[in-house]
Write a structure and sequence with these properties.
By secondary structure, the protein is of the alpha+beta class. It has one domain: Aminopeptidase. The protein is built from 5 helices and 9 strands, in the order βββαααβββαβαββ. It has a 7-stranded mixed beta sheet with strand order 3-4-5-6-7-9-8, sandwiched between helices. The chain has a two-stranded antiparallel sheet with strand order 1-2. α1 crosses α3. The chain is globular and about 40 Å long. The chain binds coenzyme A. Coenzyme A (COA) binds next to β6, α4 and α5.
Length: about 190
């Protein structure tokens, strides 16, 4: 993780992470497992409904999926949840590539924090947990973020991601095409 680590503490998967922004209430970060599928589905659908432009998937398709599909995604990806009390307020995941020549990389996806919990370091805590875990198994992280998503791009830069290109018209939505900024970070 880049930057100086100081300040309040967030607990994650038995480890203690220190994040450098004071949340009103420290978020507990832990990996989501199949048993969290209902909570994961709830926040995933909220993300797609609230910020449709930030994601490649669409609400109408995911809302029709059975709960088992969400449980399977939690098994095939590494997804972290941020909890304030019992409530899941944020999530972020990575999926390791599967080919013989690209399995040293993982793709970061699905970062979202509920509007009511933003600006308190929740995404930063999620990214710190994600990077610490990814380091154990891969050498490099990549991601794609819609051009113009200043908050997310600033967050990724803060965590050491650098843009290496822009895919023009990467997404086609009901309101037009969206370019995506492609970013990577060597761990
Ligand atoms: C992007 C997002 C995850 C940030 O969540 P958050 O919990 O509010 O972020 P944090 O409070 O942890 O902020 C961490 C860093 O992110 C950046 N950041 C967060 N919100 C920002 C904003 N509104 N403007 C500029 N930078 C911002 C800053 O670098 C910040 O560090 P700083 O406060 O020390 O400057 C949140 O706004 C969100 O869920 N957006 C909609 C979904 C989305 O865009 N996901 C990304 C898909 S690729």
């Amino acid at each position: 993780m880049s930057g100086n680590l100081s300040g309040p503490i967030s607990h994650w998967a038995g480890m203690t992470l220190t994040i450098d922004k004071a949340p009103a209430m420290p978020a507990v970060i832990r990996r989501l497992v199949a048993a969290d599928a209902q909570d994961y589905r709830t926040i995933r659908l909220a993300a797609l409904a609230r910020d449709p432009d930030a994601f490649g998937s669409v609400y109408d398709i995911e809302v029709a999926r059975p709960l088992s599909a969400f449980a399977e995604r939690l098994a095939s990806s590494t997804v972290f949840g941020a909890f304030l009390g019992e409530r899941i307020v944020g999530m972020a995941g990575f999926k390791t590539e599967s080919g013989p020549k690209d399995c040293h990389k993982a793709f970061v996806w699905g970062l979202y924090v509920r509007p009511s919990a933003r600006g308190q370091g929740v995404a930063a805590a999620l990214m710190a947990a994600l990077i610490a875990e990814a380091r154990l198994s891969v050498e490099q992280l990549t991601l794609a973020v819609v051009e113009g998503n200043a908050a997310a791009i600033a967050l990724y830069r803060r965590f050491g991601f650098a843009a290496y290109g822009v895919e023009p018209r990467a997404l086609k939505t009901e309101t037009g095409y969206r370019n995506e900024v492609l970013m990577a970070r060597v761990l």
